[in-house]
Design a protein that fits this description.
CATH topology of the largest domain: Carbamate kinase
Bound molecules: coenzyme A
Strand content: 25-35%
Helix content: 25-40%
Strand order of the largest sheet: 5-10-2-1-13-16-17-15-14
Structural class: alpha/beta
Radius of gyration: 25 Å
Number of domains: 2
CATH superfamily of the largest domain: Acetylglutamate kinase-like
Number of helices: 15
Length: 425
């Protein structure tokens, strides 16, 4: 489920978004696109010299405004259909044929009278025709939904595109809800005040200072401090994720390749919202030593990790982050600052029953964010059997001379570990 704000269609980058949509369609991804038309509605109202009434953020759609909505949505919808019909010359998707289908898939109801104000033709989603949309997707068609719907009495209602996208995602039990707006995601600054000093937040901060991943529980704490588009998109994502959609993504329609980067790379290009879960990523404390030992011992016995005694772990426990699930430590990783700008990542381990669930990624991202917060701009790791895992996450092989002198003198030549370094900026 992909929502594009009305601004996206007017943006220069829309041509690239169309290519990405074509690629996803050719890969067999089932796509429903919901488009908004806010700026286009404003333009039509301007041309008609009609002043729109608002109550709070919400437009009151009276009959003249509804005519403007109808005209604007018609323009945007036909514009998208036309753009998706271009044969994509001079692109790898040359000759791709995209079929787009739209129709009366959204049933709407009036928003009604709130605080004594009658919102008239401003409405809400009442029902989504899941079966009809499903049939179109089964045939490989892209379904295009507009920010409007019709009531069983035959009236048209102006809807928020976010509402249509969220309700359609829930009704179709979509794999993902992707909301594309002006900004790249939620700003990390919004999260800063929420992160307590004693605890490493579960949310991740990307290089461009946006929150790259956040759980629904953290997001609900953050929402009161957000405003405008951030708030609207965050609210929709929360509703969707709480209703069982696995993932919601907030991306910018201005960034070339954002859609593919978010879907197909570890770093992503925006903010990913996942269901709040019963797993907690947090800084370790002395009570966790037993759990960490249980996790590390088998790996030490296999020679994958260097042995650490209980006493050493106790002294170094504050360097560890752990993932706890149902009271058990199922993953850990530690960060040892090695010089003012370099830190060593160590003891990265995920319990064998819980591997391939991106827990290694979550730990790596949390510790990278922590390192950056301490002005450390490079992290390194010594590994014998996990080289590719680190390489796939942006680490490059380095020589022993890249390590600080004290660390070089501790290097175990018999163990012959490979050294990998990652620049954090
Ligand atoms: C490496 C490790 C921490 C990854 O944790 P995880 O939560 O399973 O990792 P993610 O879910 O983020 O990533 C899973 C991917 O890593 C790959 N992977 C796992 N171990 C790997 C290895 N040794 N080499 C290369 N890739 C590896 C998986 O195949 C999977 O790839 P896929 O998604 O393409 O199938 C975990 O496998 C582990 O604890 N290994 C043993 C300890 C270890 O080697 N630690 C590093 C010491 S320096």
């Amino acid at each position: 489920m992909l929502m594009l704000e009305g601004d996206a269609i007017a943006d220069d980058n829309f041509a690239h978004i169309v290519q990405d949509i074509a690629l996803l369609n050719s890969l067999g991804v089932r796509l429903v696109i919901v488009h908004g038309a806010r700026p286009q509605i404003d333009q039509v109202l301007n041309v008609l010299n009609i002043k729109s009434q608002f109550h709070g953020d919400l437009r009151i759609t009276d009959q003249p405004a509804l005519n403007a909505v109808r005209a604007a949505i018609g323009i945007v919808k036909s514009d998208i259909e036309a753009r998706l019909s271009i044969g994509l010359p001079n692109t790898p998707m040359h000759g791709a044929r995209i079929r787009v289908v739209s129709g009366n898939f959204v049933t709407a109801k009036p928003k009604g009278v709130i605080d004594g104000i009658d919102f008239q033709h401003t409405g809400e989603v009442r029902r989504i025709d899941r079966r009809a949309i499903g049939q179109q997707l089964d045939q490989g068609n892209i379904v295009l939904l507009s920010s409007c719907g019709y009531s069983p009495s035959g009236e048209m209602f102006n809807l928020a595109a976010e509402d249509v996208a969220t309700q359609a995602a829930i009704s179709l039990m979509a794999e993902k809800l992707i909301l594309m707006g002006e900004d790249e995601g939620l700003p990390a600054s919004a999260n800063a005040s929420k992160v307590s000093d004693s605890k490493v937040s579960d949310s991740k901060v990307s290089d461009s200072e946006i929150i790259s991943q956040i759980t629904s529980d953290e997001l609900s704490q953050l929402i009161p401090s957000l405003s405008g588009e951030h708030k609207m998109h965050a609210q929709s994502s929360l509703t969707a994720v709480k209703a069982g959609i696995n993932r919601a993504h907030l991306l910018s329609h201005k960034v070339d390749g954002a859609l593919l980067q978010e879907l197909f790379t570890h770093e992503g290009a925006g903010t990913l919202i996942t269901a709040g879960d019963y797993e907690q990523l947090r800084q370790a404390n002395i009570e966790d030593v037993g759990g960490i030992l249980e996790l590390l011992t088998p790996l030490e016995e296999q020679g994958i990790l260097v042995r650490r005694s209980r006493e050493l772990l106790e002294t170094e426990i504050s360097r560890f982050n752990v993932i706890e699930r149902d009271g058990m430590i199922i993953a850990c990783a530690a960060l040892y600052p090695s010089s003012t700008e370099l830190a060593e990542l160590a003891c990265v381990a995920v319990s064998s029953e819980y591997r391939s669930g991106q827990r290694g990624d979550r730990l790596l991202n949390a510790l990278s964010a922590q390192a950056k917060a301490e002005n450390i701009n490079k992290i390194f790791v010594l590994t014998t059997r996990t080289a590719h895992w680190f390489m796939e996450r942006g680490f490059s092989e380095a020589d022993i001379s890249a390590l600080p002198k004290e660390r070089q003198s501790l290097y175990n030549f018999q163990r012959n570990s490979k050294i990998f370094i990652k620049e954090l900026n």
